Amino acid sequence: MDLRGRLISKTSKQWFKLLHAKVIISKSVDPYFNLALEDFLYSNSKSPRSLILYTNTPSVIIGRNQNPWVEANVRKCRSNLVNIIRRKSGGGTVFHDLGNVNYSLLTNRNEFSHTKGAELIVKALEKLNVEAELNQRHDIVLKDTKQKISGSAYKISKGKSYHHGTMLLNSDLKGISSYLRSTTKGIISKGVTSTRSDVANVNLSQVDFLREAMLSFLQYDDARHVSGTNPDTSIDDQKTADLSSRDNVVFVDSNDLAGVPHVMQTMQELKSWNWTFGQTPFFKQLITTNNLPIGNHQIELDISIRHGIIENFNFTSSNDRLQQEIMNYPWKGMAYELGFINSFMLNSVPSSEALIVLDWISKNI
Ligand SMILES: Nc1ncnc2c1ncn2[C@@H]1O[C@H](COP(=O)(O)OC(=O)CCCC[C@@H]2CCSS2)[C@@H](O)[C@H]1O
Protein backbone atom coordinates (compact mmCIF):
# COMPACT_ATOMS: atom_id res chain seq x y z
CA MET A 1 0.00 0.00 0.00
CA ASP A 2 1.33 3.49 -0.78
CA LEU A 3 1.74 6.23 1.80
CA ARG A 4 -1.54 7.88 0.81
CA GLY A 5 -3.40 4.59 1.23
CA ARG A 6 -1.84 4.08 4.65
CA LEU A 7 -2.79 7.61 5.71
CA ILE A 8 -6.36 7.17 4.57
CA SER A 9 -6.75 3.90 6.38
CA LYS A 10 -5.20 5.38 9.53
CA THR A 11 -7.59 8.32 9.32
CA SER A 12 -10.64 6.18 8.73
CA LYS A 13 -9.68 3.95 11.67
CA GLN A 14 -9.46 7.07 13.85
CA TRP A 15 -12.81 8.32 12.58
CA PHE A 16 -14.39 4.97 13.22
CA LYS A 17 -13.04 4.91 16.76
CA LEU A 18 -14.18 8.44 17.38
CA LEU A 19 -17.65 7.97 15.93
CA HIS A 20 -18.17 4.82 17.99
CA ALA A 21 -16.67 6.01 21.26
CA LYS A 22 -19.01 6.53 24.18
CA VAL A 23 -17.05 9.32 25.79
CA ILE A 24 -14.85 11.72 23.86
CA ILE A 25 -12.58 13.94 25.90
CA SER A 26 -10.94 16.77 23.99
CA LYS A 27 -7.38 17.60 24.96
CA SER A 28 -7.62 20.81 22.98
CA VAL A 29 -8.67 24.07 24.64
CA ASP A 30 -9.34 25.82 21.33
CA PRO A 31 -13.03 26.80 21.37
CA TYR A 32 -13.23 26.74 17.56
CA PHE A 33 -11.86 23.22 17.41
CA ASN A 34 -14.08 21.95 20.21
CA LEU A 35 -17.26 23.35 18.71
CA ALA A 36 -16.26 21.96 15.31
CA LEU A 37 -15.51 18.55 16.88
CA GLU A 38 -18.98 18.55 18.44
CA ASP A 39 -20.55 19.47 15.11
CA PHE A 40 -18.53 16.79 13.31
CA LEU A 41 -19.58 14.05 15.72
CA TYR A 42 -23.17 15.24 15.68
CA SER A 43 -23.33 15.33 11.88
CA ASN A 44 -21.48 12.08 11.21
CA SER A 45 -22.70 9.69 13.90
CA LYS A 46 -25.39 7.46 12.42
CA SER A 47 -27.06 6.68 15.70
CA PRO A 48 -25.39 8.79 18.34
CA ARG A 49 -25.31 8.20 22.04
CA SER A 50 -22.15 9.73 23.38
CA LEU A 51 -20.78 12.32 25.72
CA ILE A 52 -18.17 14.92 24.73
CA LEU A 53 -16.23 16.80 27.38
CA TYR A 54 -14.13 19.89 26.68
CA THR A 55 -12.72 23.07 28.14
CA ASN A 56 -12.07 26.31 26.29
CA THR A 57 -9.70 29.25 26.62
CA PRO A 58 -11.51 32.50 27.56
CA SER A 59 -14.34 33.07 25.13
CA VAL A 60 -17.86 34.43 24.95
CA ILE A 61 -20.19 31.93 23.30
CA ILE A 62 -23.37 33.48 21.96
CA GLY A 63 -26.48 31.57 20.86
CA ARG A 64 -27.36 30.98 17.21
CA ASN A 65 -29.87 33.87 17.06
CA GLN A 66 -28.31 36.46 19.29
CA ASN A 67 -26.85 39.94 18.91
CA PRO A 68 -23.21 40.08 20.09
CA TRP A 69 -23.43 43.84 20.74
CA VAL A 70 -26.36 43.29 23.12
CA GLU A 71 -24.86 40.25 24.81
CA ALA A 72 -21.21 41.14 25.24
CA ASN A 73 -18.81 43.99 25.80
CA VAL A 74 -17.44 43.63 22.27
CA ARG A 75 -14.80 46.32 22.79
CA LYS A 76 -13.44 44.66 25.94
CA CYS A 77 -13.47 41.20 24.33
CA ARG A 78 -11.47 42.54 21.41
CA SER A 79 -8.87 44.33 23.47
CA ASN A 80 -8.35 41.32 25.77
CA LEU A 81 -8.35 38.82 22.89
CA VAL A 82 -11.42 37.02 24.21
CA ASN A 83 -13.08 35.34 21.24
CA ILE A 84 -16.73 36.01 20.59
CA ILE A 85 -18.14 32.89 18.97
CA ARG A 86 -21.62 32.26 17.61
CA ARG A 87 -22.51 28.63 18.21
CA LYS A 88 -24.94 26.49 16.22
CA SER A 89 -27.37 25.84 19.06
CA GLY A 90 -29.97 28.34 20.25
CA GLY A 91 -30.22 29.92 23.70
CA GLY A 92 -28.25 32.51 25.63
CA THR A 93 -24.69 33.73 26.04
CA VAL A 94 -22.12 32.23 28.40
CA PHE A 95 -18.49 32.88 29.25
CA HIS A 96 -15.95 30.04 29.06
CA ASP A 97 -12.49 29.79 30.51
CA LEU A 98 -10.23 27.01 31.76
CA GLY A 99 -12.20 26.85 35.02
CA ASN A 100 -15.35 25.89 33.13
CA VAL A 101 -15.99 22.42 31.68
CA ASN A 102 -18.51 21.79 28.90
CA TYR A 103 -20.41 18.58 28.36
CA SER A 104 -22.39 17.60 25.32
CA LEU A 105 -24.80 14.70 25.24
CA LEU A 106 -25.46 13.42 21.70
CA THR A 107 -28.50 11.21 21.14
CA ASN A 108 -31.03 10.24 18.55
CA ARG A 109 -33.94 12.64 18.34
CA ASN A 110 -36.35 10.15 19.86
CA GLU A 111 -34.12 9.89 22.92
CA PHE A 112 -33.84 13.66 23.33
CA SER A 113 -34.88 15.16 26.62
CA HIS A 114 -34.42 18.69 27.97
CA THR A 115 -33.28 17.33 31.28
CA LYS A 116 -31.36 14.06 30.79
CA GLY A 117 -27.90 15.62 30.27
CA ALA A 118 -28.26 17.94 33.23
CA GLU A 119 -29.62 15.13 35.44
CA LEU A 120 -26.54 13.01 34.69
CA ILE A 121 -24.37 15.94 35.72
CA VAL A 122 -26.36 16.48 38.93
CA LYS A 123 -25.73 12.79 39.77
CA ALA A 124 -22.02 13.24 39.13
CA LEU A 125 -21.99 16.27 41.44
CA GLU A 126 -23.79 14.28 44.13
CA LYS A 127 -20.90 11.79 44.12
CA LEU A 128 -18.58 14.73 44.71
CA ASN A 129 -20.69 16.00 47.62
CA VAL A 130 -22.13 19.00 45.79
CA GLU A 131 -25.86 19.36 46.32
CA ALA A 132 -27.40 20.66 43.14
CA GLU A 133 -30.75 20.57 41.34
CA LEU A 134 -32.42 21.63 38.12
CA ASN A 135 -34.57 24.75 38.08
CA GLN A 136 -37.54 25.31 35.78
CA ARG A 137 -35.29 26.64 33.02
CA HIS A 138 -33.20 23.42 33.21
CA ASP A 139 -30.23 25.33 34.63
CA ILE A 140 -28.28 23.44 37.27
CA VAL A 141 -28.27 25.48 40.48
CA LEU A 142 -26.86 24.95 43.96
CA LYS A 143 -29.57 23.56 46.22
CA ASP A 144 -29.07 26.00 49.07
CA THR A 145 -28.34 29.34 47.38
CA LYS A 146 -30.04 28.64 44.01
CA GLN A 147 -27.01 30.15 42.26
CA LYS A 148 -26.50 28.93 38.73
CA ILE A 149 -23.56 26.61 38.12
CA SER A 150 -24.50 25.33 34.66
CA GLY A 151 -26.53 26.53 31.69
CA SER A 152 -27.71 24.45 28.73
CA ALA A 153 -28.62 24.76 25.09
CA TYR A 154 -29.94 22.31 22.50
CA LYS A 155 -29.88 21.47 18.86
CA ILE A 156 -32.30 19.06 17.22
CA SER A 157 -32.33 18.29 13.51
CA LYS A 158 -32.21 15.43 11.03
CA GLY A 159 -33.27 12.82 13.56
CA LYS A 160 -30.45 13.69 15.95
CA SER A 161 -29.96 15.98 18.90
CA TYR A 162 -27.48 17.31 21.35
CA HIS A 163 -27.84 18.89 24.72
CA HIS A 164 -24.75 20.78 25.76
CA GLY A 165 -24.03 22.60 28.95
CA THR A 166 -21.40 24.35 31.01
CA MET A 167 -20.12 23.60 34.50
CA LEU A 168 -18.49 26.32 36.56
CA LEU A 169 -15.71 24.60 38.48
CA ASN A 170 -13.28 27.46 39.12
CA SER A 171 -14.20 30.11 36.57
CA ASP A 172 -13.37 33.78 36.71
CA LEU A 173 -16.79 35.02 37.87
CA LYS A 174 -15.73 38.66 37.51
CA GLY A 175 -14.87 37.85 33.90
CA ILE A 176 -18.39 36.52 33.39
CA SER A 177 -19.99 39.74 34.54
CA SER A 178 -17.58 42.10 32.81
CA TYR A 179 -17.37 40.38 29.41
CA LEU A 180 -21.11 39.84 29.33
CA ARG A 181 -21.98 43.45 30.18
CA SER A 182 -22.72 45.34 26.97
CA THR A 183 -21.83 49.02 26.73
CA THR A 184 -23.78 49.56 23.52
CA LYS A 185 -26.83 51.75 24.09
CA GLY A 186 -30.19 52.07 22.40
CA ILE A 187 -30.34 48.76 20.52
CA ILE A 188 -33.79 47.61 19.48
CA SER A 189 -33.57 43.99 18.41
CA LYS A 190 -35.75 40.96 17.82
CA GLY A 191 -32.92 38.53 18.61
CA VAL A 192 -32.98 36.11 21.53
CA THR A 193 -31.76 37.73 24.76
CA SER A 194 -30.01 35.89 27.56
CA THR A 195 -31.43 35.35 31.03
CA ARG A 196 -28.87 36.74 33.43
CA SER A 197 -28.41 34.88 36.69
CA ASP A 198 -26.40 34.95 39.86
CA VAL A 199 -23.61 32.42 39.25
CA ALA A 200 -21.25 30.40 41.47
CA ASN A 201 -18.35 27.96 41.15
CA VAL A 202 -18.57 24.47 42.61
CA ASN A 203 -14.83 24.53 43.38
CA LEU A 204 -14.08 20.99 42.22
CA SER A 205 -10.96 19.77 40.48
CA GLN A 206 -11.34 19.16 36.77
CA VAL A 207 -10.10 15.58 37.02
CA ASP A 208 -12.69 14.70 39.67
CA PHE A 209 -15.49 16.28 37.72
CA LEU A 210 -14.52 14.66 34.41
CA ARG A 211 -14.30 11.23 36.02
CA GLU A 212 -17.71 11.43 37.69
CA ALA A 213 -19.40 12.98 34.64
CA MET A 214 -18.02 10.20 32.48
CA LEU A 215 -19.06 7.44 34.89
CA SER A 216 -22.50 8.93 35.31
CA PHE A 217 -23.01 8.83 31.54
CA LEU A 218 -21.53 5.35 31.08
CA GLN A 219 -23.79 3.96 33.79
CA TYR A 220 -26.82 5.52 32.14
CA ASP A 221 -25.74 4.16 28.76
CA ASP A 222 -25.10 0.70 30.12
CA ALA A 223 -28.43 0.61 31.94
CA ARG A 224 -30.16 1.52 28.69
CA HIS A 225 -28.39 -1.27 26.81
CA VAL A 226 -29.53 -3.97 29.17
CA SER A 227 -32.86 -2.49 30.21
CA GLY A 228 -34.65 -4.55 27.55
CA THR A 229 -33.71 -7.76 29.32
CA ASN A 230 -33.44 -6.64 32.91
CA PRO A 231 -34.91 -3.30 33.90
CA ASP A 232 -33.64 -3.66 37.46
CA THR A 233 -30.01 -3.74 36.48
CA SER A 234 -27.86 -1.90 38.97
CA ILE A 235 -24.24 -1.04 38.46
CA ASP A 236 -21.73 -2.40 40.91
CA ASP A 237 -18.16 -1.22 41.35
CA GLN A 238 -16.65 -3.92 39.15
CA LYS A 239 -18.93 -2.93 36.33
CA THR A 240 -18.03 0.72 36.78
CA ALA A 241 -14.39 -0.18 36.30
CA ASP A 242 -15.25 -2.07 33.08
CA LEU A 243 -17.30 0.81 31.82
CA SER A 244 -14.42 3.23 31.95
CA SER A 245 -12.19 0.86 30.00
CA ARG A 246 -10.11 2.28 27.14
CA ASP A 247 -12.49 1.31 24.37
CA ASN A 248 -15.27 3.45 25.71
CA VAL A 249 -13.26 6.58 26.25
CA VAL A 250 -11.31 8.33 23.53
CA PHE A 251 -9.04 11.33 24.01
CA VAL A 252 -8.78 13.55 20.99
CA ASP A 253 -6.54 16.47 20.06
CA SER A 254 -6.77 18.92 17.19
CA ASN A 255 -3.85 17.17 15.43
CA ASP A 256 -5.89 13.97 15.25
CA LEU A 257 -8.46 15.70 13.06
CA ALA A 258 -6.18 18.04 11.12
CA GLY A 259 -7.22 17.69 7.51
CA VAL A 260 -10.71 16.35 8.23
CA PRO A 261 -12.71 18.59 5.86
CA HIS A 262 -15.82 18.90 8.04
CA VAL A 263 -13.79 20.01 11.06
CA MET A 264 -11.60 22.41 9.07
CA GLN A 265 -14.58 23.99 7.29
CA THR A 266 -16.61 24.38 10.47
CA MET A 267 -13.65 26.04 12.22
CA GLN A 268 -13.29 28.46 9.30
CA GLU A 269 -16.99 29.22 9.36
CA LEU A 270 -17.06 29.81 13.13
CA LYS A 271 -14.07 32.16 12.84
CA SER A 272 -15.55 34.24 10.05
CA TRP A 273 -16.98 37.74 10.54
CA ASN A 274 -19.89 36.74 8.32
CA TRP A 275 -20.94 34.06 10.79
CA THR A 276 -20.19 35.72 14.12
CA PHE A 277 -21.39 39.24 13.35
CA GLY A 278 -23.04 38.88 9.94
CA GLN A 279 -25.63 36.40 11.27
CA THR A 280 -26.97 38.93 13.77
CA PRO A 281 -30.74 39.31 13.42
CA PHE A 282 -31.84 42.70 12.06
CA PHE A 283 -31.58 45.48 14.63
CA LYS A 284 -31.84 49.22 15.04
CA GLN A 285 -29.92 51.60 17.21
CA LEU A 286 -31.46 54.84 18.40
CA ILE A 287 -29.37 57.17 20.55
CA THR A 288 -29.69 60.84 21.42
CA THR A 289 -27.61 63.27 23.41
CA ASN A 290 -27.51 66.96 24.25
CA ASN A 291 -24.26 66.67 26.14
CA LEU A 292 -21.69 67.12 23.42
CA PRO A 293 -19.51 70.28 23.57
CA ILE A 294 -20.69 71.49 20.17
CA GLY A 295 -23.39 73.93 21.16
CA ASN A 296 -26.35 73.40 23.37
CA HIS A 297 -28.54 71.27 21.17
CA GLN A 298 -29.78 67.74 20.81
CA ILE A 299 -28.40 65.33 18.27
CA GLU A 300 -29.99 62.04 17.30
CA LEU A 301 -28.69 58.93 15.60
CA ASP A 302 -30.94 56.30 14.05
CA ILE A 303 -29.22 53.31 12.37
CA SER A 304 -30.65 50.09 10.88
CA ILE A 305 -28.31 47.10 10.65
CA ARG A 306 -28.97 43.99 8.59
CA HIS A 307 -26.49 41.08 8.55
CA GLY A 308 -24.11 43.27 10.54
CA ILE A 309 -24.03 45.89 7.77
CA ILE A 310 -25.45 49.42 7.99
CA GLU A 311 -28.58 49.49 5.85
CA ASN A 312 -29.85 52.91 6.87
CA PHE A 313 -28.23 55.79 8.67
CA ASN A 314 -29.91 58.94 9.91
CA PHE A 315 -28.27 61.73 11.85
CA THR A 316 -30.22 64.80 12.91
CA SER A 317 -28.95 67.96 14.52
CA SER A 318 -30.14 71.55 14.67
CA ASN A 319 -26.71 72.45 13.32
CA ASP A 320 -27.44 72.05 9.58
CA ARG A 321 -23.84 72.14 8.48
CA LEU A 322 -22.88 69.38 10.93
CA GLN A 323 -25.90 67.30 9.96
CA GLN A 324 -25.00 67.57 6.30
CA GLU A 325 -21.35 66.70 6.91
CA ILE A 326 -22.16 63.57 8.92
CA MET A 327 -24.85 62.47 6.48
CA ASN A 328 -22.42 62.91 3.60
CA TYR A 329 -20.23 60.08 4.82
CA PRO A 330 -20.84 56.83 2.92
CA TRP A 331 -22.30 55.00 5.94
CA LYS A 332 -24.50 52.62 3.99
CA GLY A 333 -22.89 49.26 3.34
CA MET A 334 -20.28 49.72 6.08
CA ALA A 335 -19.88 47.02 8.71
CA TYR A 336 -21.40 47.96 12.06
CA GLU A 337 -18.05 47.42 13.69
CA LEU A 338 -15.74 48.95 16.19
CA GLY A 339 -13.18 50.92 14.28
CA PHE A 340 -15.35 51.44 11.23
CA ILE A 341 -15.22 55.11 12.03
CA ASN A 342 -11.43 55.04 11.79
CA SER A 343 -11.73 54.21 8.13
CA PHE A 344 -13.56 57.51 7.64
CA MET A 345 -10.70 59.30 9.31
CA LEU A 346 -8.37 57.92 6.69
CA ASN A 347 -10.59 59.02 3.84
CA SER A 348 -11.58 62.52 4.85
CA VAL A 349 -10.72 65.50 7.00
CA PRO A 350 -13.65 65.94 9.38
CA SER A 351 -14.46 69.31 10.97
CA SER A 352 -13.75 69.53 14.70
CA GLU A 353 -17.51 69.27 15.46
CA ALA A 354 -17.82 66.18 13.27
CA LEU A 355 -14.83 64.65 15.07
CA ILE A 356 -16.64 65.06 18.39
CA VAL A 357 -19.75 63.42 16.94
CA LEU A 358 -17.74 60.56 15.41
CA ASP A 359 -16.04 59.98 18.74
CA TRP A 360 -19.44 59.89 20.46
CA ILE A 361 -20.78 57.43 17.89
CA SER A 362 -17.75 55.14 18.23
CA LYS A 363 -18.15 55.08 22.01
CA ASN A 364 -21.76 53.97 21.69
CA ILE A 365 -21.14 51.12 19.29
N1 LIG B 1 -20.09 29.33 32.01
C1 LIG B 1 -21.28 29.63 32.55
N2 LIG B 1 -21.97 28.68 33.20
C2 LIG B 1 -23.18 28.95 33.76
N3 LIG B 1 -23.79 30.15 33.70
C3 LIG B 1 -23.13 31.12 33.04
C4 LIG B 1 -21.86 30.91 32.43
N4 LIG B 1 -21.47 32.07 31.85
C5 LIG B 1 -22.47 32.95 32.08
N5 LIG B 1 -23.47 32.39 32.80
C6 LIG B 1 -24.74 32.99 33.25
O1 LIG B 1 -25.78 32.49 32.41
C7 LIG B 1 -26.49 33.60 31.80
C8 LIG B 1 -27.05 33.20 30.44
O2 LIG B 1 -28.01 32.20 30.64
P1 LIG B 1 -28.96 31.65 29.48
O3 LIG B 1 -29.87 30.66 30.10
O4 LIG B 1 -29.57 32.80 28.75
O5 LIG B 1 -27.97 30.93 28.46
C9 LIG B 1 -27.27 29.78 28.75
O6 LIG B 1 -27.10 29.36 29.89
C10 LIG B 1 -26.68 29.11 27.53
C11 LIG B 1 -25.81 27.92 27.83
C12 LIG B 1 -25.03 27.45 26.61
C13 LIG B 1 -24.15 26.28 26.92
C14 LIG B 1 -23.32 25.80 25.78
C15 LIG B 1 -22.48 24.62 26.16
C16 LIG B 1 -21.32 24.39 25.27
S1 LIG B 1 -21.06 25.72 24.20
S2 LIG B 1 -22.20 26.99 25.15
C17 LIG B 1 -25.44 34.69 31.75
O7 LIG B 1 -26.00 35.97 31.61
C18 LIG B 1 -24.74 34.49 33.10
O8 LIG B 1 -25.51 35.05 34.14
Automatic annotation (TrEMBL):
Which pathway does the database say it acts in?
Protein modification; protein lipoylation via exogenous pathway; protein N(6)-(lipoyl)lysine from lipoate: step 2/2
GO BP, sorted A to Z: protein lipoylation
Could you tell me one molecular function GO term of this UniProt entry?
ligase activity
Keywords in UniProt for this one?
A: Ligase
- Residue ranges of the BPL/LPL catalytic domain? 45-218
Under Pfam families, the record lists:
LplA-B_cat (PF21948)
Q: Which InterPro entries match?
A: aa-tRNA-synth_II/BPL/LPL (IPR045864), BPL_LPL_catalytic (IPR004143), LipoylTrfase_LipoateP_Ligase (IPR004562)
Query: Which Gene Ontology CC terms are recorded?
Result: mitochondrion
PROSITE patterns on file: BPL_LPL_CATALYTIC
Q: What does this protein do?
A: Catalyzes both the ATP-dependent activation of exogenously supplied lipoate to lipoyl-AMP and the transfer of the activated lipoyl onto the lipoyl domains of lipoate-dependent enzymes.
Q: Which family does it belong to?
A: Belongs to the LplA family.
Q: Which NCBIfam families match?
A: lipoyltrans
Report what the protein is called. Putative lipoate-protein ligase A
Q: What is the lineage of its organism?
A: Eukaryota, Fungi, Dikarya, Ascomycota, Taphrinomycotina
